[in-house]
Amino acid sequence: MASNRTGSNRTEVPQAREALNRFKMEVAGEIGVPLKQGYNGDLTSYQNGSVGGEMVRRMIQRQEESMSGTTASAGTGSAPAAGLGQPGGPQAGSTGQSQGF
């Protein structure tokens, strides 16, 4: 049944699944979320959401850099440029503009 998944929570490129899992674990470790392989039902939705949100921010940043031909975080793996998500670094949504919700 798992091989015939039709939900939105599937990897479009099956070969990327392991890389995404490594990326998820790396992000979780960097932002202090005690994510582990397997069951993580003991974590709050806030903790899980912070991992997913940071992953999306970094993937968008990488895509923007590749489209513009620049690399602000060249040679740093998946570490965020300019300290995004890091203590003391700029936080997402801190542009001073209202988020509208």
Automatic annotation (TrEMBL):
<keyword id="KW-0238">DNA-binding</keyword>
<dbReference type="InterPro" id="IPR050847">
    <property type="entry name" value="SASP_DNA-binding"/>
</dbReference>
<dbReference type="GO" id="GO:0003690">
    <property type="term" value="F:double-stranded DNA binding"/>
</dbReference>
<dbReference type="Pfam" id="PF00269">
    <property type="entry name" value="SASP"/>
</dbReference>
<feature type="region of interest" description="Disordered">
    <location>
        <begin position="61"/>
        <end position="101"/>
    </location>
</feature>
<dbReference type="InterPro" id="IPR038300">
    <property type="entry name" value="SASP_sf_alpha/beta"/>
</dbReference>
<dbReference type="InterPro" id="IPR001448">
    <property type="entry name" value="SASP_alpha/beta-type"/>
</dbReference>
<feature type="compositionally biased region" description="Low complexity">
    <location>
        <begin position="68"/>
        <end position="84"/>
    </location>
</feature>
<dbReference type="InterPro" id="IPR018126">
    <property type="entry name" value="SASP_alpha/beta-type_CS"/>
</dbReference>
<dbReference type="GO" id="GO:0006265">
    <property type="term" value="P:DNA topological change"/>
</dbReference>
<comment type="similarity">
    <text>Belongs to the alpha/beta-type SASP family.</text>
</comment>
<keyword id="KW-0749">Sporulation</keyword>
<protein>
    <submittedName>
        <fullName>Small, acid-soluble spore protein, alpha/beta type</fullName>
    </submittedName>
</protein>
<comment type="function">
    <text>SASP are bound to spore DNA. They are double-stranded DNA-binding proteins that cause DNA to change to an a-like conformation. They protect the DNA backbone from chemical and enzymatic cleavage and are thus involved in dormant spore's high resistance to UV light.</text>
</comment>
<dbReference type="GO" id="GO:0030435">
    <property type="term" value="P:sporulation resulting in formation of a cellular spore"/>
</dbReference>
